[in-house]
Amino acid sequence: MNKLEIAKRIIKENIEDARCGIFDTRNIAGDTMETLYDSDDLTIDICYFWMYFEVFGLTKEEFEILERYYNSL
Asked: Which of the two ends of the chain, N or C, has the fewest CB atoms closer than 10 A to its terminal CB?
């Protein structure tokens, strides 16, 4: 399973807790984050309070595909 497929699986499994966005940049507000996945140069964090994901380790193109997938959910 490649990184994009892993990211899609994690996002789908946790979508109900993060319906307010998905980003590939680190928050600068200091929001409390929890790590859902951290392996194979892929990190997926979630902010439960503000309900969003942060995803690191995908290419720009892969993240755009993931963002479209997220929006389709």
From this structure: N
pTM given for the model? 0.95
* Structure tokens, 46: 């979630």
| Surface-to-core class of residue 21, CB atoms within 10 Å of its CB (0-12 exposed, 13-18 middle, 19+ buried) | middle
Q: Per-domain residue ranges for the chain?
A: 3-72
* C-alpha gyration radius of the chain: 11
Render pLDDT for 20-55 as a digit per residue (tens, 0 to 9): 999 999 999 999 999 999 998 999 999 999 999 999
Residue 64 CA to residue 23 CA, distance in Å, equals 10
Amino acid at 68: R
CA torsion sign for 60, 23, 35, 29 is positive
